[in-house]
Amino acid sequence: MKAEIKNLVHRMLIFNIGFIAFLILFCSFGINNNYWAHASGSKQMKHSNRLKDEKSPYLLQHADNPVDWYPWGEEAFEKARKENKPILLSIGYSTCHWCHVMEHESFEDEDVAKLMNETFVSIKVDREERPDIDNIYMTVCQMLSKGGCGWPLNIFMTPDKKPFFAATYIPKESRYGRTGMMELVPKIKVAWEKDNVNILNSAEHITAALKKATDVSQGAEGKDLSTKTLDTAYSQLLRNFDEENGGFGRSPKFPTPHNHLFLLRYWKRTGDQQALNMVEKTLNEMRLGGVYDHVGFGFHRYSTDPSWLLPHFEKMLYDQAMLAMAYTETYQATGKKEYENTAREILTYVLRDMTSPEGGFYSAEDADSEGVEGKILRLDRRGIKRDLRR
């Protein structure tokens, strides 16, 4: 358990360093570009739940679901305690592609909604509105799954907020090795009624482990980082580096600009040329790949393949902020103009497409357009020939 907690703390520390840098560079309204196209789409208002009075774009997207959603608050927890029901906490954000998919497949479906309403008190949370709640339960997911977490984040927990199961995207029907909602919800219902003691005990153990992890991450030990810690982080990055395509690991492959910022500083501190080589290889491959928008500029959220070719088309403000920093600092380190040019193009995109008329910044640009992922960003041979003839 100590090793798991240390690994978890290390991951959270690296993330938090990057997030602080983002906050310094940009101030965001937390408003999502293209949200209004989703919110005012073709869906007819057949239902109305408690989310209809919320202000969050993400919660409003779910206000007409047949699921009896509650916002996070005492009303939901009191109902769960009174009726002795488990809670399904579903966390996402308004430009999240797989959040849209799960809503369409399950939360808009009458059969799934009926099961959910009978079994759970269901709570919706916008991670951009309540990052504190998201951080706690994302940590739970990382502890239970040892990685592989994202959004939508679905946490099954007791009425007193203690989690006993975590999942990300759940299809309606079981497929591709994923248990579907139509199978999973009845199983949880039976387990809650027939094996309640074991579920509560499991929730207690998970909550205790979470408390230990968060105590350490909040600096309970009060120890300074040493050069040994930096060397360990460098060794882990070197071990996971993709020498052929750049980046770390296989797929899906994220830009992880905080890693590049760390490697630049490690190179400067130690003179280790391989640290700088990893940064340059990765930034060059990303810039030449499909994960970069060569027409409108800016980087998509991640690549679905190892070679940065086929992106997930969502664009995040924090990625643009951190990548602009990574390309700028690599230009400062090498003097190579291609890094300066890329940084300028990123900021051109942000100022043109991610800046609101009121002066703030949109937090993300949706992957979906007209209900299709990447529709306005994908070009086929026939379409290119047609446009060139005009």
List the keywords:
5-stranded mixed beta sheet; alpha/beta; 12 strands; 2 domains; 390 residues; Glycosyltransferase; 3-stranded mixed beta sheet; single chain
Please give the radius of gyration in angstroms.
22 Å
Q: Which class of the largest domain in CATH terms? A: Alpha Beta
> How would you sum up the global shape?
globular
Overall mean confidence score, pLDDT: 86
Widest sheet: strand ordering: 2-4-3-5-6
- Count of runs of 4 or more consecutive helical residues: 15
Number of E-state strands? 12
What would CATH call the homologous superfamily of the largest domain?
Answer: Glutaredoxin
Largest sheet: 5 strands, mixed
Could you name the CATH topology of the largest domain? Glutaredoxin
Number of domains: 2
Which structural class best describes the helix and strand composition? Answer: alpha/beta
Low-confidence stretches: 1-31, 34-45
CATH architecture of the largest domain: 3-Layer(aba) Sandwich
C-alpha termini separation:
64 Å
In percent, how helical is the residue content? 40-55%
Beta content comes to 5-15%
Chart the SSEs and their pairings.
Elements: H1 2-25, E1 28-33, H2 35-39, H3 57-61, E2 69-71, H4 74-83, E3 87-92, H5 97-107, H6 110-119, E4 121-126, H7 131-145, E5 153-157, E6 163-167, H8 181-194, H9 196-217, H10 227-240, H11 257-270, H12 273-288, E7 302-303, E8 311-312, E9 315-316, H13 317-334, H14 337-353, E10 361-365, E11 368-369, E12 372-373, H15 381-389
Parallel strand pairs: 1-10, 2-4, 3-4
Antiparallel strand pairs: 3-5, 5-6, 7-8, 9-10, 11-12
Helix pairs in contact: 1-9, 1-13, 6-8, 7-9, 11-12, 11-13, 13-14
